[in-house]
Design brief:
about 180 residues, globular, 11 strands, 6-stranded mixed beta sheet, single chain, 5-stranded mixed beta sheet
């Protein structure tokens, strides 16, 4: 009898997570590929793994929503030259402090990890000579936020993202570094 109750709880949790994740995924639409220019860099956030596929990662540049990263997709972000704080949200926050150059293209791997209640996220800056980049870019699909749905999503998470950015700025959050030479 205990096993049946446990199975019912797991199925109920899976259904709730699936229902919740559908809201975010509908925000994302297929996108055209963009290239870096003399005015901006392009940062590609890649998620080649399907592990933890029901959990989506909210991707941010400080308080600016970059997109909702889903498995087997990537998000391209036009980044002004200079310093950025890139954040990914799942059960945890994962952070990269970046300094990017116009005309360069950067790659960040977003990997799901086992979490307590849902998947966690880990961001990794990929080096320009990483041989996996070309393979992933050929197999993943570019997606972008539907502008009509952006504001409601951001408003709901406004205080959480502000606190996460503040934690980075005051030194209470761990982060990785993206250097200008990490771009291609």
């Amino acid at each position: 009898m205990k096993n049946v109750a446990g199975i019912i709880k797991v199925l109920a949790l899976a259904w709730v997570l699936s229902a919740l994740s559908g809201c975010s995924s509908s925000m994302m639409k297929p996108a055209e590929v963009i290239q870096a220019s003399p005015e901006y860099a392009v940062v590609n956030f890649l998620r080649p793994s399907s592990f933890g596929g029901a959990i989506m990662f909210g991707m941010w540049d400080r308080e600016n929503l970059v997109g909702i990263l889903t498995s087997k997709n990537y998000i391209q972000y036009k980044a002004r030259p200079g310093e950025h704080i890139f954040l990914a949200r799942a059960e945890n926050w994962s952070v990269i402090k970046a300094n990017v150059l116009a005309g360069k293209t950067y790659y960040v791997l977003a990997s799901p990890r086992m979490g307590w209640g849902k998947a966690r996220v880990s961001l990794e800056v990929l080096k320009p000579d990483d041989k996996r980049i070309d393979e992933w870019m050929a197999s993943l699909k570019p997606i972008a936020v539907d502008p009509a749905q952006r504001d409601a999503y951001v408003k709901e998470r406004e205080s959480s993202i502000k606190q996460a950015v503040e934690n980075v700025q005051n030194g209470s959050a761990e982060f990785s570094i993206m250097n200008p030479e990490d771009g291609r």
